[in-house]
Specification:
The chain is α/β, with parallel strands linked by helices. It is 35% helix and 23% strand. It has helices at 4-13, 52-65, 105-115, 146-158, 187-196, 249-260, 274-286, 291-294, 311-342, and strands at residues 18-27, 37-40, 45-47, 73-79, 91-99, 120-125, 132-135, 163-165, 168-173, 179-183, 202-207, 221-225, 241-244, 267-270, 297-298. The strands form three sheets. The protein has a six-stranded parallel sheet, with helices on both faces. Strands 3-2-1-5-4 form a five-stranded antiparallel sheet, sandwiched between helices. A hairpin with a 4-residue loop joins strand 2 and strand 3 (45-47). Helix 5 crosses helix 9. The longest helix has 32 residues, at 311-342. Residues 335-343 have low confidence and may be disordered.
């Protein structure tokens, strides 16, 4: 997972000059969303704004500016047609911020808010090189214009994504709400965590066996060793996505039973075959799980059409299915308020 705040802080702590490249606006089609970033230093490129000629040309422009840092912020427009060597057909505005080797106050503020799980909005002017503000629901820079503060807080309330408004780029910085709980640290579980950890998500990885987890893990993976993993379910936040793939069928059954007794889950996936699903359905019915609730049990897991049984192949199929489930729920949450307004 590309955490641009932490990556930029690491570059800054090394005393390296850098250019922060951000997709500020898009009209038509573009390779990445508004707010996509990459960091360019004299020796490396970290992250991506979509690859292809757009990224190549932006990297080339950023590198040229290391020779002349007189402009601290520049906005350039790229037409993604044949003249750019791409056929997306859209127009992309890209913001280049040339950052010094000294400490960056707004970056320090954002990281502090991130570490304290405090949502914030970073607001950048595309016309005034000195105008950059950090806004939370209860704090803001003293020089922040009132309309900027109001707009930023409205975005936080609405859960909005990054966007341009007038001359300002508004970028909400919040902890991901894509929470995944994975039971089982076998070969498939490990491969699945490896795939999912590259997404903007939080993973709670649980197993009953000691010393089963890798020594080194991504920052968004939290491991938990419990003799009875099913007891962890009561500690999980609302709206989580569950994956059950332990080394024990009785343990899988107990975990699925606990999950399906909650009414606030987003997904419950069980590794296995159709025959395993039928056996589990019979057992769960006997244990009092309503028949209608069993429809929420996804087994086998993984999008259809992928036939491979290797751990990484299963992991890719499972990851794709989780993304589909997440995005479908996102659409429903966005459409429901609109339908309510329209009556």
């Amino acid at each position: 997972m590309f955490d641009w705040l932490q990556e930029l802080a690491a570059v800054n702590h090394k005393g390296q000059v850098a250019v922060l490249v951000t997709v500020a606006n898009i009209r038509g089609s573009g390779p990445r969303e508004i707010g996509a970033k990459m960091i360019v230093t004299p020796t490396e490129v970290i992250g991506s704004i979509g690859g292809g000629q757009l990224e190549y040309q932006c990297t080339e422009f950023a590198c040229k500016q290391f020779k002349d840092m007189s402009q601290s912020t520049v906005k350039r427009r790229y037409v993604l047609g044949s003249n750019c060597g791409q056929c997306c057909g859209g127009v992309v505005d890209v913001l280049f911020e040339f950052l010094p080797t000294s400490s960056i106050l707004w970056l320090e503020k954002l990281i502090e808010h991130q570490e304290n799980n405090r949502p914030a909005v970073i607001v950048t002017s595309t016309t005034d090189v000195s105008a950059k503000y950090v806004v939370t629901m209860d704090e803001c820079d003293t020089e922040s214009p009132s309309n900027v503060v109001d707009n930023a807080r409205s975005m936080l309330n609405a859960g909005a994504l990054a966007c341009m408004s007038g001359e300002f780029l508004f970028e909400p910085i919040r902890k991901s709400t894509f929470n995944i709980v994975l039971f089982g640290a076998g070969h498939v579980g490990a491969a699945t965590v490896d795939v999912l950890s590259k997404l903007d998500c939080n993973i709670r990885w649980i197993d009953s066996r000691k010393n089963i987890f890798p020594n080194t893990l991504p920052l968004n993976v939290n491991t938990i060793t419990r003799p009875d993993p099913a007891n962890e379910i009561g500690m999980v936040e609302s709206g989580a996505y569950y994956l059950v793939m332990t080394h024990s069928h009785p343990m899988d059954l107990d975990i699925c039973d606990r999950i399906l007794r909650r009414d606030d889950i987003s997904f419950c996936g069980l590794i296995g075959s159709q025959s395993k699903r039928r056996r589990f359905e019979r057992s769960l019915k006997k244990q009092g799980i309503p028949v209608a609730r069993l429809q929420d049990l996804v087994c086998p897991i993984g999008i259809t059409g992928i036939l491979g049984k290797k751990p990484t192949e299963i992991a890719v199929a499972v990851g794709a299915e989780l993304l589909m489930a997440r995005d479908q729920q996102f659409k429903e949450k966005r459409i429901a308020p609109l339908l309510e307004v329209l009556g």
